[in-house]
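SUBJECT: A protein chain and its fold
Encoding: whole-number codes for local backbone shapes
RECORD BEGINS BELOW THIS LINE
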Amino acid sequence: MNRAALSALVLGLLVPSAGRAEDARDKALASLRGSWVCIEQSGEKPTREHKLIIDKVGGYRMGGTSGESSDIAMLAGVEGDVRFDKSQSPPNIDLVGSKLTLRGLYKLEGERLTIVVGADGARPTSFDKGEGTVHVFQREASKE
């Protein structure tokens, strides 16, 4: 087989899988996109409103009346990027902020998003082992 044919074959095999990976990422991002109100943090109801806002390109921003004082904003930064891997079980999420990266796990159950982030940059291995701080968010109703 000549080089051109071999290159075309390899390219044909790689490009569709890259497209499928992007489609899976786009679907996962679409399910997380929007405004989420924190309803529980470390087992307690927050005293002030904290929102996690995930945009269509995978950026995040902490908002609400006191978003800048949420522990996510204080540790990672008020703004940053969300990276996630649904192929892991449970799925991984990283909040990459201007200060540091919070590594964690997430689960999406209907309109409820639960994120556990590990201490000292370590990724927790489960939601139940007390390996990190658990944040529970409720999707904010759209105002359309």
In short: The CA atoms of residues 80 and 110 lie 25 Å apart. Residues 33-139 form a domain with the Lipocalin fold (CATH 2.40.128). The longest strand covers residues 101-109. The first helix runs from residue 3 to 32.
